[in-house]
Amino acid sequence: MMLLLGAFVGPQALADKVALDADDWGHPGGEDCASCHEKASPGLAAEWRSSAHGVAGVNCMDCHQATADEADAMEHEGQIIATIVSPKDCGRCHATEYQQQAGSVHAEAYALIADRVPALAHNLTGAAMQAAGCDQCHGSQVSVRGDGTLDPATWPNSGIGRINPDGSRGSCSSCHGRHAFSKAQAREPEACVRCHSGPDSPDKEIFEASKHGMLYKARHAGMNLDSDSWVAGVNYTAAPTCVTCHMGAAGKIPATHDVGMRNAWSLNSPVSQRQYLIVLEDGSKLELPAADAPPRRGSEVVKADGSIGKVKVVATPERRRQIMSLVCLECHSKTFTEGFMSQFDAVVELFNAKFGEPAQAIMQGLYDAELLTPLPFDEPIEFTYWELWHDEGARARHGASMASPNHAWWEGMYLVGRNFYSRFLPQARALAGERTGELVEPWIRQSEQHAWLGQPQQANPILGHVPAPDPDPAAATTEAE
Ligand code: HEC
Ligand code: HEC
Ligand code: HEC
Ligand code: HEC
Ligand code: HEC
Ligand code: HEC
Ligand code: HEC
Ligand code: HEC
């Protein structure tokens, strides 16, 4: 084994990188797997053989090996294997990436939606849509049948927060396509956009419409995606990709498998909040609204699963923003970067004050007054409100954060304004009936943002240029003479 490795890279260099002794791979049962699978599934085997793993001698059994006590273990051609290779399994050799991924918002993506799936997927459509819809992006809770095989209602799945039979969360093959497991491929925006596209997280569309996306496409050869080291401003300067800003190394900032660290805002909520990032002593993370007082180091907080954790580090939204901005500074000036960020923040604050907060308060009032049933999605205004913040509102905020004027305005805030004035308010007023003065109007009257409704306007752009009525033809002739 050592010899084979030595021929390619040198075992010491490899061992340093993956923090593991090269003797730990090259499972004796592994070569048989490959030779039969070269016939049984040639595409898969070929991808593996030309991959960094194949080249280094990391074989099928190094990843698929299992012990008999594992829930999804099965006997296969004389070996005990598991089909699922979980983040924990990869973590045997890639401890750093595993730990960063395990503490990230990505790892929470299934847990986050568990209580919302019933209303959205099951009531609105049907249970079949969970496996083919939500779970493909967010991840499934994989269940194992008695014989160790995986329940087809929950697998195949490579969702980002998948709950694996060994309890670990996520799936590394959501970004690293198997069996190449390439880092160059994962640096492409395409690695992200299967999930980050569409109404509520339209990052694909936004990136493509931005100057960055245009340059990325035009100057792809200059992106140096195959480079071992990939530091923005050093190994490439043509354009940033999703990975550059959210995960990549830049200047003194190291690369990370935690995509949430550099985000100051929660952009996908009815009202956006700036958020602290709390790192707990057990390595898990938590986000708390910046409007609350920051928890002290060593104090106890309640985690998402209800258990108690001790605070180790608190990153303020300002600190998170600073880290994101340091990425920009590799290619832009400080004044430029700060100016851009202040334009972005102003859009989020405008959304909150003008639409997000009033709409939420009006909905709350309608529910409290029992003018709406407590059930979600059984009344038209619930769709109107949902689309206001979840689709159009998210698109506007994402568009402003990633420099697509089209998504910030036409596909975003323009639709928010249209919805609010032409659908949401009329529906809310109709529901409130004679109580509109109490349940709806105060939120509009109170806000300076809506004061324009009572003011005369200078220009009305709706009609466009209307030609003045034909003057008296006789008079016109006289004037021409
Ligand atoms: C003699 C041929 C042969 C050998 C040796 C072999 N496999 Fe397979 N394996 C197959 C075939 C054929 C299938 C597909 C069965 C099917 O379509 O359900 C399969 C299926 C699998 C699956 C998928 C099971 C699932 O749940 O979808 C995995 C994972 C797998 N093999 C890994 C391995 C590993 C690891 C080894 C080495 C220990 C190995 N195989 C050795 C022929 C082989
Ligand atoms: C670097 C680790 C790694 C190596 C090496 C590896 N696999 Fe896999 N394999 C995975 C992962 C990850 C999955 C996805 C399963 C999951 O977690 O959902 C997978 C899935 C599979 C599947 C089922 C999914 C499908 O697409 O059909 C088969 C079959 C399989 N591997 C066979 C093999 C064989 C044969 C080899 C050796 C030629 C091999 N694997 C080498 C990690 C690995
Ligand atoms: C195409 C992939 C995809 C599908 C399908 C999908 N989601 Fe999401 N979802 C995402 C992404 C990406 C985010 C993160 C948005 C962000 O932070 O920008 C997200 C965020 C969320 C959030 C948190 C914030 C929000 O926008 O409400 C919830 C809850 C959620 N999804 C529930 C669901 C449910 C329930 C389903 C199925 C009925 C579903 N999602 C289907 C990709 C998807
Ligand atoms: C959100 C997408 C995503 C997921 C999920 C993901 N990776 Fe990565 N991974 C990347 C990207 C992008 C790179 C290249 C980063 C760079 O060079 O800046 C990378 C690089 C790597 C590298 C090469 C590191 C180096 O310095 O050469 C390893 C090893 C790795 N990932 C392992 C994993 C493991 C293990 C998991 C699961 C625990 C995982 N990845 C999950 C996107 C992802
Ligand atoms: C038994 C140890 C071992 C296991 C298990 C393992 N890897 Fe690796 N991985 C390696 C070695 C060795 C390399 C080669 C390092 C190099 O080329 O610098 C590597 C390289 C990589 C790279 C960089 C590839 C590139 O393009 O340069 C990625 C990404 C990666 N592994 C992801 C994974 C994922 C995801 C899993 C689990 C599905 C996994 N690895 C499981 C040992 C392992
Ligand atoms: C398999 C689906 C999937 C893939 C692939 C994926 N993501 Fe995500 N991502 C999600 C989901 C779902 C969420 C919402 C998770 C949550 O809020 O807990 C999310 C959340 C995020 C967030 C928001 C974090 C926050 O602070 O709220 C960022 C940034 C992000 N992803 C970036 C990326 C990047 C960059 C890539 C590609 C390298 C990528 N994602 C690949 C599904 C995916
Ligand atoms: C030039 C840098 C840059 C690029 C390129 C970029 N983003 Fe972003 N992204 C940002 C910034 C800045 C924010 C706002 C962060 C904040 O909350 O302060 C953001 C926000 C997000 C969010 C919402 C997170 C939140 O705060 O709720 C997601 C999800 C996301 N980006 C995913 C992606 C994906 C996927 C791509 C590629 C298709 C991408 N981004 C490309 C800089 C970038
Ligand atoms: C790897 C280099 C790189 C990084 C990192 C980067 N950019 Fe850029 N950005 C560029 C290039 C190149 C242009 C195109 C400049 C031009 O031709 O006008 C550009 C253009 C822009 C534009 C459009 C400017 C205009 O005049 O229309 C904005 C806005 C922008 N970047 C914001 C950011 C922000 C914010 C960040 C950090 C979150 C960032 N960029 C990170 C390289 C980068």
TrEMBL record:
Keywords: Signal. It comes from the Bacteria. InterPro entries: Multihaem_cyt_sf, Multiheme_Cytochr_ET. Coiled coil: none annotated. Transmembrane segments: none annotated. Residues 459-481 are annotated as: Disordered. This is Uncharacterized protein. It comes from Thiohalocapsa marina.
